[in-house]
Amino acid sequence: MRHTATFPIDDLAFWKKQLLYWAAGFELGVYLDSNRMDHEGLVLGQSVSTESWECLAAADSVAVLEANAGDAFEQLGSFHQGTGDWLFGYFGYDLKNEVESLSSQNYDGIGLPDLGFFRPGTVVGIKPPRSSKTYELVLEIQTLTRAPEDVFQEIKNAKCDPYKQEQVSIKLQPRIPKSEYLQTVETIRQHIAGGDVYEMNFCQEFFAENAKIEPVFVFERLNMIGKAPFTTFLRWHDRYLLSASPERFLKKEDQKLTTQPIKGTRRRGKSQEEDELIRQELANSEKDRSENVMIVDLVRNDFSRNCLPGSVVVEELCGIYSFATVHQMISTVSGVLPSLGALDSLGAINNARQIPNDQMTNDQISLQALRDCFPMGSMTGAPKIMSMELIERYERTRRGLYSGAVGYFDPNGDFDFNVVIRSVLYNAAIHYVSAQVGGAIVFDSVPAQEYEECMVKAEAMMRALTLDPNFV
């Protein structure tokens, strides 16, 4: 049973910063920022599963699970079962090797386990005003053993590590030379022409070795640049994720599942007129719409494996959303999971499920649905399995947490996870910095344009890694 207390606050920016500093001070800590109050009217912009949080942080772990592909989802099910409590953590992309008969042999400079979750001793969130007519903000603290009042003072007094970044700028170098990238895109186009895949997400890594960074400092800059709705700071011992993700992987609220895949990106214009022209060009792009629709069809199929027949719907197709640095084409797909008494309505669809229908709990139903949607189609391609085989063949870096998901399970059994993109990953043990970017390759792709899209996506991370104030 958690102790819960609320504290009125009046300076949102100050308390967000304090929450970040507080979470970063633990060996395992996570800070999720929806930046919703900077995006009035942006309906997708919640990084938590209800609309009652502006940001959420968790730390002070009381139980931890780390696992690699093999039986990681089963271990997570056992770890979660019966807790009725918060769990925060991540799914690495290479859990694909458990979901399907695949493998990962590429270089990995970050070295995280494929899956990591912890039960936090303390969860803290900021609730926005209850209506547009009031500016009252509330800090809510939930603890297992500590007095919420003590935690409040601890957060209020939290300070960032005084270490200052020694290097003026972290210069990232490509793992794949540009000429090789262009040729690989052309090779993938030939796979598409041959019928191997319809669409494939091809990514490349930009990295730096012997690079010391201050993770909190870089994250603050990245969040200031991007103000994305699924912004995440994750510390896992001496590994860090600094993410300005605009994309939701999967959300469960009651029995409803929602996913919001992104396909289609353009940089923001320098003037209001140019910006609107770019936005309209994205909205009218047949290539981007085709990419988006292919992934929508894929995730509808993933949902149908566990959702009630007839419940899977496309709530929005190819909507255009504008963020601080880019315009994005985003679709929203939802479906309804069966309750325990309605499992038989799935019939023969789930004959291959790991756990018989009559032995499943609500948590297991939810986790099975999450597993069957993983990895997210927006980061693989279609068909999914062949796309992942080609990804392994042509990429040069193991994706690890990139293309995976970070989020939480809440005490009600709901969950919300982002897609780990637009992110800097840092291994503080060996001073290795990694930023991966990519895009969907279809037959109509022009290699040089695909490379330019990668650079658009990498720009915010590269700006965050320099100390030059002119680059913010």
Outline of the structure:
By secondary structure, the chain is an alpha+beta fold. Helix content is 29%, strand content 30%.
Give a written overview of the molecule.
By secondary structure, the chain is α+β, with helices and mostly antiparallel strands. It has a single domain, classed as Anthranilate synthase (4-Layer Sandwich), CATH 3.60.120.10. It is 29% helix and 30% strand. It has a 20-stranded antiparallel sheet that branches. Strand 9 (230-236) and strand 10 form a beta hairpin. Helix 5 packs across helix 11. The longest helix is centred in the middle third of the chain and has 19 residues, at 286-304. The chain starts with a strand and ends in an 8-residue tail after the last helix.
What is the overall number of helices? 11
How many domains would you count in the coordinates?
1
Structural class: alpha+beta
**Rg, alpha carbons:** 21 Å
CATH secondary-structure class? Alpha Beta
Mean pLDDT level: 90
CATH superfamily: Anthranilate synthase
Q: What ranges have pLDDT less than 50 throughout 5 or more consecutive residues?
A: 39-51
Instruction: Bin the helical content.
Output: 25-40%
> In the CATH hierarchy, what is the architecture at level 2?
4-Layer Sandwich
Percent range for β-strand residues: 25-35%
Major beta-sheet overview: 20 strands, antiparallel
Measured distance between first and last alpha carbons:
44 Å
Strands, count:
20
**CATH topological fold name:** Anthranilate synthase
> What overall form do the CA principal axes indicate?
globular
